[in-house]
Write a structure and sequence with these properties.
Elements: H1 3-7, H2 18-29, H3 35-51, H4 59-64, H5 87-101, H6 103-107, H7 111-114, H8 119-142, H9 147-150, H10 156-170, H11 172-182, H12 192-208, H13 213-222, H14 229-235, H15 243-269, H16 278-299, H17 305-327, H18 330-342, H19 348-364, H20 368-371, H21 374-396, H22 406-423, H23 425-440
Helix pairs in contact: 5-8, 8-10, 11-12, 12-13, 14-16, 15-16, 15-17, 16-17, 16-19, 18-19, 18-21, 18-22, 19-22, 21-22, 21-23, 22-23
Length: 441
C-alpha cells in the first residue's frame, strides 16, 4: 500500500481487524518520522496501547524508553503523570538530538536495536550520549537559540521538561532498576520490598546526581495506579538527604499530587448532568477520595495548613459533583427509561444511561460517609427503590406473566434488575419473591 493511501485511512484504522491493524502499524513504522506518520500514530495510540503490537525498534523509541511513563495520559480514565512530557515536544526534540549525536555515531549503537552480544552495554552508552546531547540543547534553549528548530512555542514548562529528560537519560540505568523492582504499571499497592528498592536506588542517585532525585521519585510515582500512595512511604524514606531537603522534596511532591487531584476534580465538576457518564463520575469520585485519604494520611506529619485547606476544598468539590451529577434526578431518570418499556418501546441508550445511574448510586455508597452525603444518598436510593418496587408490582402483579402484557412484563423485570444494581441481589430477590407470592394467592 502506498504511503499516502495508508495515511488517508485516518480513523478507519481504529475499526479494522486486529491482524490488519498490526500490519498497518508495521508499515507505518517503516515510513520514518514524517509528520503525517506521527499524526496517524497519535490518532491510533489508544488502540496501540490496547493491542501492543510489536513495533520496529528505532533509536527514537529507544531514546524515549527511560521517560515513557511520563508521557501524557491517553484518556481521562487514568491519572496523568505528576510531571507530564508532551509527545509533540519529543517529536520536535528528537531530530535535534539525532543531529547532535550524528548519524555516523548513531550507527555504532546499532547493537542496542538489534539485540545480541553487548546490547545492554550499547543501550546504556546510547542513553549516556543522548543525555549529553539533550543537555547541550537545553543550554542553548536558555539563550533562545533552538526555538525555531523545535517549532514549538517555548515556555518555562517546556524548558523544564527538556531538562527533566536530560536528568532521566543520565540516570537511565537506575530507571531500569526501578522498573524491574516495582513491576509493570499500573501498580496498585506499594509493598515493603518496593519501598526498600526505591530508597536504595534513590540513595545512589542522591550521591551522584542529587538534582535528579525529584524526577526519579516522580518516575516511581508514575508507575502507580494512584501516585499519592507513594507519599506515605516517602516521608519516612531515607534518601541520604539533609532533613531540610527531604522535607522540601516531600512538600514539593505533595503539592504536585494535590494540584493533580484539583485538576481531576475540576474536569468533571462543570459537566452538565444530562450529558454525563454517571458511572465515570462515580469512579472518578471514588478515585479522588482514595487519593485524598492517602494524601491526607501522608501529610499529617507535615502539618501544612495550606495543603489542609486545599484538600478540604477538593473534598467539597467532590461532594458537589456527586450530589449534582449522581443524586439529583436519579429517580426520575431511571423511571423515565422504564416508562419507554411500558409503552412497548426500547430506547437502548436511555436504558444504558439508567443502568449506569443505578450502578453509580451503589458505587457512591462507599464514599457517602466521607463526603457527608450518607443521609442524602440513603433518601435517594430508598425513594428510587420504592418507586421501582411499585413499578414491578404493577407490571408483575399477576405472577410471572405480568398480566399478559409483554411490555409491562419487560418493564417489571427491568425494574427488579435496577433494584439489584442499586441495593444488591438480596433486596431484589426479596421483592421479586413477595410479588410472585402475592400473585399466587
Amino acid at each position: 500500500m502506498e504511503a499516502h493511501a495508508l495515511l488517508s485511512l485516518g480513523t478507519k484504522l481504529l475499526d479494522i481487524d486486529d491482524n490488519r491493524f498490526r500490519q498497518v502499524v508495521d508499515l507505518l513504522g517503516h515510513m520514518g518520522d514524517h509528520p503525517e506518520v506521527q499524526q496517524t500514530f497519535s490518532m491510533i495510540r489508544p488502540r496501540l496501547k490496547e493491542l501492543r503490537p510489536k513495533r520496529r525498534p528505532t533509536f527514537k523509541r529507544l531514546f524515549c524508553e527511560p521517560f515513557e511513563d511520563l508521557f501524557q495520559a491517553l484518556s481521562g480514565d487514568e491519572p496523568a503523570p505528576l510531571n507530564t512530557v508532551e509527545r509533540g515536544l519529543v517529536n520536535s526534540l528528537w531530530p535535534l538530538v539525532e543531529a547532535q549525536i550524528g548519524k555516523d555515531r548513531l550507527r555504532t549503537f546499532q547493537a542496542a536495536l538489534n539485540g545480541g552480544d553487548g546490547q545492554k552495554e550499547q543501550t546504556l552508552a546510547f542513553w549516556a550520549e543522548a543525555a549529553q546531547a539533550v543537555a547541550e540543547i537545553a543550554n542553548g534553549l536558555e539563550t533562545g537559540r533552538f526555538t525555531d528548530d523545535l517549532d514549538v512555542r517555548l515556555n518555562p514548562e517546556r524548558i523544564r521538561t527538556i531538562q527533566d529528560i536530560t536528568h532521566i537519560l543520565a540516570i537511565a540505568p537506575a530507571v531500569l532498576d526501578l522498573k524491574a523492582a516495582v513491576g509493570p504499571k499500573p501498580v496498585a499497592k506499594l509493598h515493603k520490598d518496593h519501598l526498600d528498592a526505591i530508597q536504595t536506588i534513590g540513595r545512589t542517585i542522591a550521591r551522584g546526581r542529587p538534582e535528579a532525585v525529584k524526577i526519579f521519585i516522580l518516575l516511581a510515582a508514575a508507575r502507580l495506579s494512584d501516585p499519592s500512595i507513594l507519599l506515605g512511604g516517602l516521608w519516612s524514606m531515607d534518601l541520604g538527604q539533609k532533613p531540610s531537603d527531604r522535607a522540601a522534596l516531600f512538600l514539593d511532591l505533595s503539592g504536585t499530587v494535590v494540584a493533580q487531584i484539583e485538576e481531576r476534580s475540576r474536569a468533571m465538576t462543570g459537566s452538565p448532568a444530562g450529558g454525563t457518564d454517571r458511572m465515570a463520575v462515580a469512579n472518578l469520585a471514588v478515585d479522588l477520595m482514595a487519593s485524598l485519604e492517602a494524601t491526607r494520611s501522608a501529610m499529617e506529619q507535615s502539618r501544612n495548613k495550606e495543603f489542609d485547606q486545599r484538600l478540604k476544598s477538593i473534598r467539597g468539590s467532590v461532594h458537589d459533583m456527586v450530589r449534582a451529577q449522581l443524586l439529583d434526578g436519579a429517580e426520575s431518570g431511571i423511571l423515565a427509561a422504564l416508562g419507554t418499556l411500558s409503552g412497548g418501546g426500547n430506547d437502548r441508550d436511555q436504558m444504558l444511561q439508567a443502568e449506569n445511574q443505578a450502578r453509580a448510586l451503589r458505587k457512591c455508597a462507599t464514599i457517602a460517609d466521607t463526603l457527608g452525603l450518607r443521609g442524602e444518598l440513603k433518601a435517594v436510593t430508598q425513594k428510587t427503590t420504592a418507586s421501582l418496587t411499585d413499578t414491578a408490582r404493577q407490571a408483575l402483579g399477576n405472577g410471572a406473566n405480568g398480566g399478559g402484557a409483554t411490555g409491562n412484563a419487560r418493564a417489571g423485570y427491568t425494574a427488579i434488575r435496577m433494584i439489584e444494581l442499586i441495593a444488591g441481589p438480596a433486596e431484589a430477590n426479596q421483592i421479586m419473591d413477595e410479588i410472585l407470592n402475592t400473585g399466587r394467592r
